[in-house]
Specification:
153 residues; alpha/beta; five-stranded parallel sheet; 20% strand
Length: 153
């Protein structure tokens, strides 16, 4: 099974269902310069996921606060991450559609990456059945849950 990495855009903090956190081996929380406080809900859920599911938690610090420069730095960091982990599956948790064209380009080059706006739908899919169940949920599930990233052989 491929390593699954969840990247959380802190600007879109939301509840992280613990029932799906075991699907990820690594969680990266993107924080920008000037973000001195993290929502207590996110911190407590990440710590619980780390304790219960052995999820590796990291902060991805981006030092510029202006939106265009932040986006460029995020894209650069994402590229480095993809290069270092070519066999991993990436899910970006964000309501920001800015990177959708970059994600499409990455997919066209064979990288396994999706953006999702919510993780709640993952709780309906049983662990280990992502590829088969993803096709049965709804037509646009791939974009919503970020799972069916590989075409079965």
């Amino acid at each position: 099974m491929a390593n699954r990495i969840l990247i959380i855009n802190n600007d879109n903090s939301q509840e992280l269902p613990l029932s799906v956190m075991d699907r990820f081996q690594q969680v990266m929380l993107v924080v920008g310069k000037g973000q001195n406080n993290l929502p207590i809900e996110i911190v407590s859920q990440l710590l619980l996921a780390q304790a219960q599911h052995k999820v590796q938690i990291e902060l991805m610090a981006i030092t510029n606060t202006s939106k265009p420069v932040f986006d460029l730095h995020f894209a650069m960091q994402l590229g480095r991450l993809l290069e270092r982990n070519p066999d991993s599956q990436f899910t970006i948790l964000s309501s920001d559609t800015t990177f959708d064209s970059l994600i499409v380009t990455c997919k066209e080059q064979g990288m396994k990456i999706n953006r999702v706006e919510a993780l709640q739908r993952l709780s309906a899919v049983q662990p280990g059945q992502e590829e088969t169940a993803a096709a049965a949920v709804v037509a646009d599930t791939e974009e919503e849950i970020g799972l069916a990233l590989e075409t079965p052989a």
